[in-house]
Amino acid sequence: MAKRQVFYSFHYDNDVMRVQLVRNMGVIDGNAPASANDWESVKKQGAKAIQTWIDNAMKNRSCVIVLVGSETANRKWVKYEIQKAWEDGKGLLGIYIHNLKDAKTGTCKLGVNPFDSIKVGGKKMSELVKCHNPKSTDAYNDIKANISVWIETAIAARNYTQAD
Known about the structure:
Blueprint: E1 5-9, H1 12-23, E2 29-30, H2 36-44, H3 47-58, E3 63-68, H4 76-87, E4 91-96, E5 119-120, E6 123-124, E7 131-132, H5 139-163
Parallel strand pairs: 1-2, 1-3, 3-4, 4-7
Antiparallel strand pairs: 5-6
């Protein structure tokens, strides 16, 4: 089976190094990372430019993976990406990355589930979308071993809910 095309949603400033670990696992094809300069350039153009950049980056992706660090749930654009993924019928899942080691800062504290603050049909999205918490003793290899299955499960769950 071909590698799935996914979009990673995360808090750039806090978690970009942890996200790179996930990207570099080679298990799936993710959206190309924006450099700090590219992201700053888009941000300077304002909210509409950011939204357009996100929308374009999500095109042709079958799944959105929210990589959850200590402050991810509070980020405006992460919330937008979650809602956009849901509205577009994409597979959607979260993975806590607090136990992945950033070369500069080490690990971070467990963040809040970003799906708790978003409602769908009167339910918290966290009742509909799984946020995986890899083993603290070997988060990297737990993610690497399971991410493909988590993605397929998320896509199947969305296909099922859309058929109702």
